[in-house]
Amino acid sequence: MAKEVKSANPFLDDDEDIDDNDFLNHPRQGKSGYMFGNDSGNEQNEWEIKRKQLLEERRRIEERTLQSTNNSLGLLHESEQVGILTAEELVKQREQLENIEENLDVINNTMRTSQKHINSLKSIFEVLKIISVKVVKQILP
């Protein structure tokens, strides 16, 4: 009675022997180029779901970035308008200050002239006072 000894090498098992033509004609899928059982399809679905999630997240990030950019552009435009209005107001105020300065120069010149006239009148009244005192002294001894 001869006992049949099975080889310990699983690659030599004839139970799972696949015909070479079947192996070569097997549909290709995955990184290795061959589909291995049902797990590969499940794994591929998981990768496809993950890919779609990442694409959706990318789309949301792009959308938020665009919205943020649009908000920034709106604020930039608003700031530009405020800057323009401020510059216009400053030009008006500068013109007003220049007009005030011119008016002050005119007022100062007028005051100098008026002071000269007052001083002239003061001299005349001093002379008249002296004359009137002399006349009064002559009339009233």
From TrEMBL:
GO terms for cellular component: plasma membrane; presynapse; SNARE complex. It comes from the Eukaryota. Residues 59-121 form the T-SNARE coiled-coil homology domain. Residues 1-42 are annotated as: Disordered. GO terms for molecular function: SNAP receptor activity; syntaxin binding. Residues 44-117 form a coiled coil. Keywords: Coiled coil, Protein transport, Transport. The keyword Transport applies. One of its GO terms (biological process) is protein transport. Residues 12-22 have a biased composition (Acidic residues). Belongs to the SNAP-25 family. This is Synaptosomal-associated protein 29. It comes from Caerostris extrusa. The gene is X975_03218.
